[in-house]
Amino acid sequence: MKKIIALCLVALFSLGIANAQEPKNEKKTVTTEFVTDIDCAGCAKKVNNTIPYEKGVKEVKVDVDTKTVTVTYDPAKTNDEALVKALAKIKIKATPKK
Question: What is the pLDDT of residues 13-66, one digit of tens each?
Fold first, then answer.
């Protein structure tokens, strides 16, 4: 009986190690820079208060001086067109920079 229990414990331990060694599927992200018509800190605040809550968005950076918004997102959950629409909802015109 002790041998069976010991064998089961070794089997469980081995499975745990095998699962721990499998590489994790890293989520792919895309970073897109949008050229916008923002011209003040108020516009930047609107972007920072809205766009991070869009589905799939990981990070948002706003640069008022260059009038750009850089968004890092999960392409499985959103895309450039959806982000342009989200910016349009807060009355900011945007186009993805190539």
Answer: 666 665 555 455 567 999 999 999 999 999 999 999 999 999 999 999 999 999
Cα–Cα distance for residue pair 63/51, rounded to 1 Å? 14
CATH architecture of 30-96: 2-Layer Sandwich (3.30)
- CA nearest 68: which of 35, 44, 95, 20? 35
Q: Where are the domains of the chain?
A: 30-96
Name the phi and psi angles at 92, rounded to 5: -125, 120
Q: How far apart are CA 37 and CA 28, in angstroms?
A: 29
Q: Report CA Rg, the chain.
A: 23
How is residue 52 written in tokens?
A: 């991070």
